[in-house]
Amino acid sequence: MTADPYEAIDALGAAPLWRYYGNLFPPEPVTAAVPFLWRYDALRPYMLHFAEALSLQEAERRVLMLVNPGLKEPPATVDNLYAGIQIILPGETAQAHRHSANAFRFIIEGEGAYTTVNGERVHMHPGDFLLTPGWHWHDHSHEGQGPMMWLDGLDYPLVNKMEAAFFELLGERLQTPTVPDDQSQRLFIHGRLTPRWLHRIGAASPIGNYPWAETEKAFEAIGDSVPGSPVDGIVLEYTNPWTGGPVMPTMSCRISRLRPGFSGQPFRHTASTIFHVVRGHGITRVNGVDLHWGPHDVFAVPGWSVYRHENLATDEDAVLFHYSDEPAQQALGLYRVDDRPFR
Amino acid sequence: MTADPYEAIDALGAAPLWRYYGNLFPPEPVTAAVPFLWRYDALRPYMLHFAEALSLQEAERRVLMLVNPGLKEPPATVDNLYAGIQIILPGETAQAHRHSANAFRFIIEGEGAYTTVNGERVHMHPGDFLLTPGWHWHDHSHEGQGPMMWLDGLDYPLVNKMEAAFFELLGERLQTPTVPDDQSQRLFIHGRLTPRWLHRIGAASPIGNYPWAETEKAFEAIGDSVPGSPVDGIVLEYTNPWTGGPVMPTMSCRISRLRPGFSGQPFRHTASTIFHVVRGHGITRVNGVDLHWGPHDVFAVPGWSVYRHENLATDEDAVLFHYSDEPAQQALGLYRVDDRPFR
Amino acid sequence: MTADPYEAIDALGAAPLWRYYGNLFPPEPVTAAVPFLWRYDALRPYMLHFAEALSLQEAERRVLMLVNPGLKEPPATVDNLYAGIQIILPGETAQAHRHSANAFRFIIEGEGAYTTVNGERVHMHPGDFLLTPGWHWHDHSHEGQGPMMWLDGLDYPLVNKMEAAFFELLGERLQTPTVPDDQSQRLFIHGRLTPRWLHRIGAASPIGNYPWAETEKAFEAIGDSVPGSPVDGIVLEYTNPWTGGPVMPTMSCRISRLRPGFSGQPFRHTASTIFHVVRGHGITRVNGVDLHWGPHDVFAVPGWSVYRHENLATDEDAVLFHYSDEPAQQALGLYRVDDRPFR
Amino acid sequence: MTADPYEAIDALGAAPLWRYYGNLFPPEPVTAAVPFLWRYDALRPYMLHFAEALSLQEAERRVLMLVNPGLKEPPATVDNLYAGIQIILPGETAQAHRHSANAFRFIIEGEGAYTTVNGERVHMHPGDFLLTPGWHWHDHSHEGQGPMMWLDGLDYPLVNKMEAAFFELLGERLQTPTVPDDQSQRLFIHGRLTPRWLHRIGAASPIGNYPWAETEKAFEAIGDSVPGSPVDGIVLEYTNPWTGGPVMPTMSCRISRLRPGFSGQPFRHTASTIFHVVRGHGITRVNGVDLHWGPHDVFAVPGWSVYRHENLATDEDAVLFHYSDEPAQQALGLYRVDDRPFR
What we know:
4 copies of one chain form a homotetramer.
Chain A lengths: L4 H7 L2 E3 L4 H4 L11 E3 L1 H14 L2 H4 L3 E4 L15 E7 L4 E7 L3 E7 L3 E5 L2 E4 L5 E4 L5 E5 L5 E7 L1 H6 L5 E3 L13 H6 L4 E3 L13 E2 L1 H11 L11 E5 L13 E7 L14 E7 L2 E5 L2 E5 L4 E4 L5 E5 L6 E7 L1 H6 L12
Antiparallel strand pairs in A: 2-20, 3-4, 4-11, 5-10, 5-12, 6-9, 6-11, 7-8, 7-10, 9-14, 15-16, 16-22, 17-20, 17-22, 18-19, 18-21
């Protein structure tokens, strides 16, 4: 036995659990992520600046990552998820690549751009929700006027933690379309009717674009006939037509309408959530911190934080797009809701 | 040992398998069902006749059953399924009841009637597809003008064979509505967005009505951008938003658009199918028998029959609504497709 | 309008639902099946008689079907299921065939026979439970001494009702073995350890034989440490290792130990059940009819009958093997339990 | 616009994706984990030392963590999993607690200890595999002679990354048993027979102990009748009887017999694996590093490493217990196998 057994076991690759216990088994989830809000008005000028200062040849993708102040290394927006704001100018194209991380875009402003996903050109309009599931080839092109900007959502922090990240560049800059433009949307976006000559391939939704017009239609149809969720208002999930479940296996993507004057119940669960304001003004209180939000802002609600939404307007809806890692936690048997009442 | 051992075992409740073998284990499915077509124009006058001659108090439901000539006792349209045509007049109501058999209606003509399903009034329009899943209370009321007629589809032949038929009358003639009219359609019929404050209950779709307007929209959106199925054309399945699967566990309900001049490939599978012509004129050849169909006709394609559709018009679509017991056969591991080529 | 509209619609293939209503929609399941018991001692001499009088070349299978007095045409034991007793003599072989009906054998007496299932010879011993899932080739050979007898269970009544019956003879009388004898049992029958280099194929269990020794071991291990089911005693289900569910998609196969003096609670459900007495003596009261059973007897409990088991011995266990169509009813959403108390 | 737009966006919580791209989207998974082996003979004296030097009152659990040299902060054995060696002395008890991390024990040496899991005392013998699924109360007691040592396996690195770690101490030191000792093993460990009066609760297997005697029996039964996996030999998975799948949702636990002279094919997949040598001597080459192993050693194979097993003995089996995060990767759609041939 050496003089110091702790040094001895260290040399053998072992360590005393009893000196680590509390850190490894905390009473409740501990995250470095903090509640945070990214103001679109403040970031937009820099988006435009970099659009001029940096070519897409140099950047491959021209994106401002929204980095949680507590999650800088590696950068993430909340623990398992990422948000960024991407800009592309008329005439530009972005190199075709694919990665095992799942991605989507939620369009903020502009017209005339499209992304090509596994051979299908998918056109973008404000409010549209576009999918690029893991290992699907994708490139972007802009043939319209003025800058096009969108929110990018990815699960790369989770995929990287899971040691399952793969990435590949296509040999050509852009894919050659192999099916008619926007075909998947036309095939699947209608009253729950599913083409029977097609078959499910992979775990993700086959739909390239869930257009904003359908989302508006849904909110109008539902109207005020139902109370909705006391926490999240009229909250709808984008679903995979083959399963009825989330559009991709790791992320749940939803949109909420908060009625004029909506004042939500406080709630917490283990899922981490990123919110993007489609329209309206309000406050979300997260663990006692008030995040004041307006159009196109993005804000982070770390997992197991108590949050509570409020629509500040008494005459206008607020609409929030949001995504979380709830399906990943569910799949691993780790999702938990706090069912104690909050004071 | 008695003189005749066959008599002796008969007295003990036993029988020699070797005298039954071929009947019990046929090389291929044997059905008494025959290909058959029910002409709407011929039946409609009798519908109107009975509407006058017979009150709904007497009839409970005023329905002409479409009985396959080979399946009279008990009556069925194909082996596991039933079709009937129901008529209700303005001012009439039909008694509330429920049964374990699953049912749906596909509306043929009329306006102003509704069915109330588990407390929700669901209004009917031509082409709408309405669900009454097993053990859901339902009653009908007509507050419009002129007769209202629809196709009833049920799986009672299957449910009865399975010895699982239950039936109950409500103590009152009509249910009292408990939710806003047509609520489920407004909640669920839009671009694959599912309310998250609701939870799946039971095996069936929660949607009361898949409206015709959505079906038309789907056909228009898909247009001629894809070939569809060589057998069934642009064939779409009505789906359960919670699962992406069939609307009820025993029946697959679909609608097909056959393009002008469509001439389908011959096909057969073990599922039995009932077709209803929404519009158009054509021929379906079933095991060599030509069924000539026009608007609102109904026809039966028994399981394991070779069938082949043809749209006779060169300038108009034909649209066929159809339902089969494929999900039941799938669930039991008994569904089979004939993958040999047909000449 | 003809003189008699009822005749007119009949000519068109239609019938008035209102004249059929009560029969098609009974308040509770109606079956022609009756509670019935087949006494092994009475049947055994005839088994031996036919074993001498009839060659297997003539019979293909030498089986006495156990026909429910209420279900003679077509013959069945309960509504969806069949039981028969098969006998094979030393030196005999039974022709290889396959059918879409699922089958199993529960061995009653004899040693030295085997069945060959998809190329695997599976040897039989009293109490063993052998599977022949749908569309698996199977033939039988007897290389031992004395007659070999077993209970055959099949779902052909269900498969035939579903219009999904296929049957095929092999070109040769017997299959050539392609794997070592009894291989599947050795691969899968041990403490919940599953070979990982194999993959699930089809819906049925891959196990050829669930040997009696394991069943005895299970009863001994469980002993009297737990109360078990108040209805069925220590009731164990034979399971499919790939799913944890029933061994075949249409039949649930179980074995129950009723302790000395066991007097069960009355119960009913919509599944129909066939019981086979492995050992012991008792009474099962079915809808008020007392069935007195002893070793190797078989008895039928039709669906929705109230039944109640009693072990008449105060010093010996009774052991019942039983199978029902519960999984088929579950898969179709039709299974129902009577949860009202019985007096 | 400020002088330096990069500083400006940093102040707003944003960062330029183009400066991070390659790190966030590597061509293949990148891990800090290294192939490593922990020698039992070297660690055992320190286990005994700490058993004397440190009371269980101080330590709560007396465990040497096996820390991968590349994964020290926080400590883990491979990316998502942990292994430790625990020791308890006669007369000792370890405090009852529960955590959302899933845990198991694989017993190395000693007799007479038991763990109490949700009220069931589960006794330990060398080679036994015991479960403590997430959020199950567990405490340990040793009533035998001599030290008791076992391998602890946990998914806390994954659970902590997922921000889903919860932990709770019981108010008492030990649980009061609520069911007979070792009941779950007696109920479930036998030839694929499942008690029908019980119901599935939660996502994990209900079995407290998969005893070594059953594992030996499995290897003997399978013998040399089948080739097994060219990579992992006769590899068996411990399964959940309710599902046929892995015993806990995040970890796949398996045991492999490598025949005398076995020389495996090289292989890689994205799952990270920890191996524990039950018996035998061999070499596993991991990404070109040779790990020479003997009885009770533990070694780490990081995800996406090429590994290849060799049993050095020509007259003795080697037996390896191993566990990986494959089910977690599968559940998230991230599992991938390298199907290119290795040279």
